[in-house]
Specification:
single chain; 25 strands; 17% helix; 3 domains; elongated; alpha+beta; disordered C terminus
């Protein structure tokens, strides 16, 4: 039998039987006949052969191909299309009965057409839909009015550049720390204010939490899946409480999963007017769906004022080193609308932010009386140079782990807010309150 399988059909030819003789046995028979007889005939048996038996199950295995839509994979940040496959099938009972009929005949032939199933999604569709839509965007602002703020801006730009144009395949997980790599001075990161163990401290890569938090807000608006996220110990200025994402290399990461069917691209750029903009591009299959968020303050924790004696500051004078900051307990809610109509309102999680105590120096240095002269050989006392705060504490990133467990889920997008972090600079003391920026 002969079988020809083409893309859309199978052709089966039953063939015919064959005849042959056993040459060795025939030779032996002739030789033996000659030995015993001078004339006559020798009967040589004829052997019949038939085509191999056809196996319907084996043919079906060669015929059947499941339909498969086109897909994508991401290698080295490049999207590679995987071609669609046309499904192919045949009625097994019809195939079996046809084979039975052909086996009963010689030189018989039959052709059976396949049932073809076209894929719903092709490579052409991928090309048309890839990064077609803006899934979400979010913007925050920062300042460059001081050297430390400039350092902080450098850190933001470096982290943003590492993340910009990052492509995630369907089902792939984004890791902030893995994407930026170690944020070291060798990589160009600068020292900027951050919170460490509840205190302000300059640390390399201070400010990168603004990048992770801005991405977090965009991811929430795109309704993607949060894998890992923690809030800061204290509130930050660039997003509202409950909407930040703290990162610290080696201990805290921000991760989310591309839970869409198509690749997404993370665009993370800094504008000339000192704004950090995150745009998520992908394929929006639910354009009628709108997701929004809001945070609700449940409790407010007041800060306390702490006073410290300062022998370099004259009696009667005070100086505020650090502005106090309230703490909060907030609930974050997610609102879903279909074609503008609210269909659900869900509480996602609760975050706690500790208060940051205000620190005030109190002068203890005795003032020199008018007309008094210094003892011979003594130098005049240097004017005190207390250090005013460049920023309120709420604008600084927190690097130590928060007191609450890691939260997952969506957070509240808010309007842009300025970031006022930086170093302290010398100033002449005075009796007026320290400036608050």
């Amino acid at each position: 039998a002969e079988v020809l399988i083409q893309p859309d059909r199978i052709t089966i030819h039953s063939g015919h039987h064959g005849e042959h003789i056993d040459k060795d046995k025939a030779y032996d028979s002739v030789v033996e006949f000659i030995k015993v007889s001078n004339s006559g005939s020798v009967d040589i048996p004829v052997i019949k052969t038939y085509p191999n038996k056809m196996d319907a199950e084996e043919y079906y295995k060669q015929i059947y191909v499941p339909v498969s839509d086109a897909a994508t994979k991401v290698e080295n940040n490049v999207v590679i299309p995987i071609a669609e496959v046309i499904g192919r099938d045949i009625d097994k009972s019809e195939l079996a009965s046809t084979i039975t009929r052909l086996e009963a005949e010689e030189d018989a032939e039959a052709t059976l057409l396949f049932k073809l199933t076209l894929p719903k999604f092709t490579v052409r569709d991928i090309q048309a839909q890839l990064f077609r839509d803006v899934l979400a965007k979010y913007t925050t602002s920062f300042r460059v009015d001081t050297q430390t703020n400039k350092n902080r801006a450098t850190n933001i730009k470096l982290a943003a550049a590492e993340i910009n144009a990052k492509v995630l395949g369907a089902g792939e997980i984004f890791s902030f720390n893995d994407t930026t790599g170690m944020r070291t001075k060798g990589a160009g990161y600068q020292d900027a204010w951050t919170y460490v163990a509840g205190k302000m401290k300059k640390e390399t890569a201070g400010g990168v939490c603004q990048v992770s938090s801005t991405i977090y807000n965009a991811v929430m608006r795109a309704d993607l899946e949060i894998v890992e996220r923690r809030n800061h110990q204290f509130k930050v200025a660039y997003v509202d409480p409950g909407m930040d994402a703290n990162v610290y290399f080696g201990s805290q990461d921000f991760k989310f999963k591309n839970n869409t069917r198509m690749p997404i691209k993370v665009e993370c750029t800094v504008t000339p007017d000192n704004k950090l903009e995150v745009i998520l591009r992908g394929t929006n299959d639910t354009p009628w769906k709108e997701v929004s968020f809001f945070s609700q303050k449940i409790e407010t924790y007041p800060f306390t004022q702490k006073y410290y004696n300062d022998s370099t500051l004259e009696e009667g004078k005070t100086y505020k080193d650090h502005e106090g900051m309230e703490g909060y307990l907030v609930d974050v809610y997610k609102i879903v609308k279909h074609n503008g109509k609210e269909v659900s309102r869900t509480k996602l999680y609760r975050n706690k932010y500790n208060p940051y105590n205000e620190e005030i120096r109190v002068g203890t240095k005795k003032a020199v009386k008018p007309g008094a002269t210094a003892a011979p050989g003594t130098k005049p006392a240097a004017s005190p140079t207390p250090v005013p705060p460049e920023v309120p504490p709420g604008n600084i990133d927190t690097t130590n782990p928060p007191e609450v467990p890691a939260d997952t889920g969506n957070t509240t997008p808010t309007a842009d807010s300025q970031v006022n972090t930086g170093e302290t600079t010398p100033a002449t003391p005075n009796t007026s309150p320290a400036p608050v920026q």
